[in-house]
């Protein structure tokens, strides 16, 4: 029976479909450390790392029988995918189950920043007096505003669907332009990156972390944005230079930011924590019980289909 090493102490019921076909090895505590993983992986066929577990060349080399890394998460920058491929090891992710919950949180951050929901809530709970007057402490609208989406893939399009329903205009930038049918669905206009920066009232980052997207948003890019613009990042922290963002927020170069991810998470740049116009979440794009269970079912599907010849969400 093939062995599956589960990096995290996942809920058993959503992996029930595996237990009759595979030997499932769970950690006794919350998760396996790297040391524990290295001690166990020599005779393992499938590794299921949590999205924050770094599956590097050392672990891949130690997995002498390893044939599949079934990542629990859609992002796979925690895995050395190219090295795995060079060793004949397939890598899969969970793109379907993360789609709607991540788009939901993205839109929630847009609302919270533009309409200052989190700001008002924090001040009222803290006993700080707000200006209740007609022109006091006003927010920004969403209706009629231009949303610039960087990365118009499945999640980007799910965000666009919500934005269109709220009366927003959509511009986007991608590595490749979408088919006309898809653009027409959202009345979306393809633009270059500079135009996206200059014309967007809100910019949503929905691209993976790659060498090309590292510090995609830094001091130069913030300088091109409107001083009334909002940045939303529910993708990966490496896309944004957090120090440059904190400076732009503090000096009023941009209006606000809604962040679910950070450069060095779980550590957060202290300057961001001090800013009222930075709305922060602890990487909870898929932070609903239903979504986390859906992700486990998608992991199980990838493992079963890998060995039985069905469709898998392969990234390499």
Protein architecture, described:
With 316 residues, this protein is of the alpha/beta class. It folds into 2 domains: 2-93 and 288-308, Rossmann fold (3-Layer(aba) Sandwich); 98-280, Rossmann fold. 36% of the residues lie in helices and 15% in strands. The protein contains 12 helices and 12 strands. The chain has a 7-stranded parallel β-sheet with strand order 8-7-6-9-10-11-12, with helices on both faces. Helix 9 (219-224) links the parallel strand 9 (202-205) and strand 10. The longest helix is centred in the N-terminal third of the chain and has 20 residues, at 95-114. The radius of gyration is 21 Å and the shape is globular. The model has no long low-confidence stretch (mean pLDDT 95).
CATH architecture of the largest domain: 3-Layer(aba) Sandwich
Report the major sheet: 7 strands, parallel
Total domain count: 2
Task: Please write the string of helix (H) and strand (E) elements.
Answer: EEHEHEHEHHEHEHEHEHEHEHEH
CATH fourth-tier homologous superfamily of the largest domain: NAD(P)-binding Rossmann-like Domain
> What fraction of the residues are assigned to beta strands by DSSP?
5-15%
Helix fraction bin: 25-40%
CATH topology of the largest domain: Rossmann fold
Low-pLDDT segments, ≥5 res = none
Tell me the name of the CATH class of the largest domain: Alpha Beta
**Overall mean confidence score, pLDDT:** 95
Give the number of DSSP strands: 12
Cα Rg: 21 Å
Per DSSP, the total helix count is 12
Distance between the termini: 26 Å
CA-based shape: globular
Going across the major beta sheet, what is the strand order?
8-7-6-9-10-11-12
Structural class: alpha/beta
């Amino acid at each position: 029976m093939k062995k599956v090493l589960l990096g995290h102490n996942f809920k058993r019921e959503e992996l029930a479909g595996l237990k009759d076909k595979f030997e499932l090895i769970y950690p006794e505590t919350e998760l396996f450390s790297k040391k524990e993983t290295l001690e166990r992986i020599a005779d393992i066929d499938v590794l299921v790392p949590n999205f924050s577990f770094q599956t590097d060349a050392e672990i891949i080399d130690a997995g002498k029988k390893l044939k599949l890394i079934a990542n629990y998460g859609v992002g796979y920058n925690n895995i050395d995918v190219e090295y795995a491929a060079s060793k004949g090891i397939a890598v899969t992710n969970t793109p379907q189950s993360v789609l709607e919950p991540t788009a939901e949180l993205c839109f929630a951050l847009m609302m919270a920043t533009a309409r200052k929901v989190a700001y008002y809530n924090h001040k009222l709970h803290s006993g700080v007096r707000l200006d209740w007057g007609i022109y006091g402490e006003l927010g920004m609208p969403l209706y009629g505003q231009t949303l610039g989406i960087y990365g118009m893939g499945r999640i980007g399009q799910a965000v666009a669907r919500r934005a269109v329903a709220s009366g927003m205009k959509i511009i986007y930038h991608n590595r490749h332009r979408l088919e006309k049918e898809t653009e027409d669905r959202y009345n979306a206009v393809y633009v270059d990156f500079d135009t996206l920066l200059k014309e967007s009232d809100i910019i949503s980052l929905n691209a993976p972390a790659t060498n090309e997207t590292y510090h995609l948003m830094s001091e130069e890019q913030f300088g091109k944005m409107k001083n009334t613009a909002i940045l939303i990042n529910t993708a990966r922290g490496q896309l944004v230079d957090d120090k440059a963002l904190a400076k732009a927020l503090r000096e009023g170069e941009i209006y606000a930011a809604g962040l679910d991810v950070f450069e060095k998470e779980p550590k957060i740049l202290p300057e961001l924590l001090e800013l009222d116009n930075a709305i922060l979440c602890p990487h909870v794009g898929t932070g609903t019980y239903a979504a986390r269970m859906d992700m486990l079912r998608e992991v199980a599907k990838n493992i079963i289909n890998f060995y039985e010849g069905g469709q898998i969400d392969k990234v390499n």
